[in-house]
Specification:
64% helix; binds fe (ii) ion; mainly alpha; 5 helices; Four Helix Bundle (Hemerythrin (Met), subunit A)
Length: 151
């Protein structure tokens, strides 16, 4: 009888725990980051459980996909309103990640699940998303004052 938790996936890149050190100074964006990291951990648990089904994995990926779309759009609108000079680069990084996620979702719906590759990609993305992409533009992620947002 095989134990159910035997896949030693992704020991190199753990999903980071959120801490105030990762705050971008915007409560809504911090809340979304915290939830994204939690969803990432949910997915990792599924991937490490041999009994998990493709449907469960697809559902977990869809949750990440849905929230990351909302999150990216909100971040981009705030960066734009605050005049962030690296907005186009930031958008490009978001787009690349969303495309990767869309490809993963398509693979899973076709029954092609490379659990090691999937966990590596998602963990890698989660490990870098906040610290390397968002924290450097923290000054432009603060809530936009109403008057300025209205133009
Ligand atoms: Fe973010
Ligand atoms: Fe971002």
């Amino acid at each position: 009888m095989q134990p159910k938790h035997t896949l030693p996936l992704n020991h190199g890149t753990p999903i980071p725990q959120w801490s105030p050190r990762l705050s971008v100074g915007n409560a809504k964006l911090d809340e979304q980051h915290i939830t994204l990291l939690e969803l990432g951990r949910d997915l990792m648990r599924l991937l490490e459980t041999k009994a998990s089904t493709d449907i469960q994995i697809h559902g977990a990926l869809e949750d990440i996909d849905r929230l990351s779309r909302l999150h990216d759009a909100l971040e981009e609108s705030i960066l734009e309103a605050n005049g962030c000079p690296t907005l186009s680069g930031h958008k490009a990084v978001h787009l690349t990640a969303r495309n990767q996620l869309a490809n993963l979702l398509a693979d899973v719906s076709h029954g092609v699940v490379d659990k090691a590759a999937l966990s590596g990609l998602v963990a890698d993305w989660m490990a870098h998303h906040i610290s390397e992409n968002d924290l450097p533009v923290k000054d432009y992620l603060k809530s936009v004052p109403r008057a300025r947002a209205a133009g």
